[in-house]
TrEMBL record:
Gene (name only): nth
Origin species: Anaerotignum lactatifermentans
Entry EC no(s): 4.2.99.18
Cofactor(s), by name: [4Fe-4S] cluster
The UniProt record lists the keyword Cell division: no
Residues holding [4Fe-4S] cluster: 188, 195, 198, 204
Protein name stated in the entry: Endonuclease III
Co-factor: note: Binds 1 [4Fe-4S] cluster.
Lineage, uppermost ranks: Bacteria, Bacillati, Bacillota, Clostridia, Lachnospirales
């Protein structure tokens, strides 16, 4: 089986088991998605959704965040971890959105990554899930699953992103993000993978290797 054929089978199976794309972060507009994604760094989506439920009622606009008191915002987002840097970046990000983008979240990758605290992963989440622009998001689950499947040999998220862009059809880029995340959470769990239950196991070179080593 060629890598192209393997990718086609994997994509079909992921779609069959997890359906079309669904963003796990609750949001009603692009700036809420941007801030929620910034908060999700080193934090679970469930925790972020708990925090933003109240946060977005208190701060109801980009202007509110731009004018937020740093210490107060830190208290609001404390449970997401790394709260000092996150709060500082959110305020700086929203200030730049007001100053340079008329309070609108841009869809351009370079513009997004010029914002404080926004890397390619965060930018691609916004581009794909709000603007519908084909984008590959590489989080810890996508990194692990794509490596085990032999779709990439890289560990750097940016290199993995470009590797996946080369072999996954563009119209599947958005879907594969959340499908691999769902698979990583449900079956391909980092410390206790359920290889015996995995529908991708016949195509998973990394999983098969681990299975042989543990026999």
């Amino acid at each position: 089986m060629t890598k192209k054929e393997k990718v086609a089978v994997v994509l079909d199976l992921l779609l069959e088991h997890y359906g079309p794309t669904k963003c796990y972060l609750n949001h009603e507009n692009p700036w809420q998605l941007l801030i929620a994604t910034m908060l999700s760094a080193q934090c679970t989506d469930d925790r972020v959704n708990l925090v933003t439920k109240d946060l977005f009622q208190k701060y109801t606009s980009i202007k509110d965040f731009a004018e937020a008191d740093l210490a107060e915002l830190e208290r609001e987002i404390h449970s997401t971890g790394f709260y000092h840097n996150k709060a500082k970046n959110i305020i700086a990000c929203c200030q730049k959105l007001l100053a340079e983008y008329e309070g609108e979240v841009p869809s351009d990758l370079d513009a997004l990554t010029s914002l404080a605290g926004v890397g390619r992963k965060t930018a691609n989440v916004v581009r794909g899930n709000w603007y519908g622009i084909p984008s590959v998001v590489v989080d810890t689950h996508v990194k692990r699953v794509s490596n085990l499947l032999g779709l990439t040999k890289n560990q750097d998220p940016v290199k993995i992103e470009f590797d996946l862009m080369k072999i996954v059809p563009k119209e599947k880029w958005i879907d594969i993000n959340t499908q691999m995340i769902a698979h990583g959470r449900k079956i391909c769990i980092a410390r206790r993978p359920k290889c015996g239950e995995c529908f991708l196991f016949p195509y998973c070179t990394g999983g098969q290797k681990l299975a042989k080593e543990t026999k």
